[in-house]
Automatic annotation (TrEMBL):
Keyword Hydrolase attributed: yes
Database matches in Pfam families: Lactamase_B (PF00753)
Matches recorded under InterPro entries: MBL_superfamily_lactonases (IPR051013), Metallo-B-lactamas (IPR001279), RibonucZ/Hydroxyglut_hydro (IPR036866)
Gene Ontology MF, one: hydrolase activity
Classification via SMART domains: Lactamase_B
Domain Metallo-beta-lactamase: 50-253
Domain of life of the native organism: Bacteria
Name of the protein described by the UniProt record: MBL fold metallo-hydrolase
CDD domains: metallo-hydrolase-like_MBL-fold
UniProt keyword annotations, A-Z: Hydrolase, Metal-binding, Zinc
Record-stated family: Belongs to the metallo-beta-lactamase superfamily.
Amino acid sequence: MPRLILGDWAVTTLETGFLWLDGGSMFGSVPKPLWSRTHPADERNRIELAMRCLLLEGHGRRVLVDVGVGDKFPPKLVDIYRIEHDRHTLAGSLAAAGLAPGDITDVVLTHLHFDHAGGATRREGERLVPAFPRARYWVQARNLENARRPNPRERASYMAENFEPLAEAGVLGTWDGAGSPWPGVEIIPAHGHTRGQQLVRVSGGGAAVTFVADLIPTAAHVRIPFVMGYDVAAIETMEEKRALLARAVAEGGWICLEHDPRVALARPVADGDDFAWGETVAAPVAGVAEPA
């Protein structure tokens, strides 16, 4: 598990499993001969995507940023999205880090799409309960409103079972825009993918890492024109991406890629009027399954 020490924070990437989404949708107007070089499609034109999370430990807190899809999907959706938990699970990755769900103090959800927030709740008999029993969950107020009244394009991505049980349990908190909830942690709004998405930047000791969620889902999306067809505002995504990458280049900062199956961390470099990657850190090839 790649790990960074940033001042008072220890930052670790955690693998939670994989899903497979339509390659054309993941790359929008980019032709398949280009994106399939790095992301070959299966027989249903789906490409493999990680569901990587970030663990922050410091200042008396253990914070998870995103939680993967979880284990509540019915068989039909498991098949549609080709959900795979044979190599990695969130519980297994936490256990490998010496932690249990009860050790998590906070969960920051970048947005409430099912592949980012599905693991926030779990089934307990006939009920849905918070998956992290001692944690407070945080989402942008704008994204919660969006999830409760989704537009037709996003309706299938927002599932009430992933967030309403948190509200009912009184553990769902909201933020409104940019902020710094803890020392060295910065919340950065980014609305091009979905309204109310929030990115998380952690800094300390002269270094920084930004968890970019769906602003830059895979390493291939470092190129400014590479924008998902899923995004609600492609031009906005490109502007947000350019600003974030320019800042990271100036700082020599790391980017944590949530969905790339092979690259966990990367440092961007300028490439003419675009960007590329310099140093990269590979994702773990295999992991551990759910602990017994």
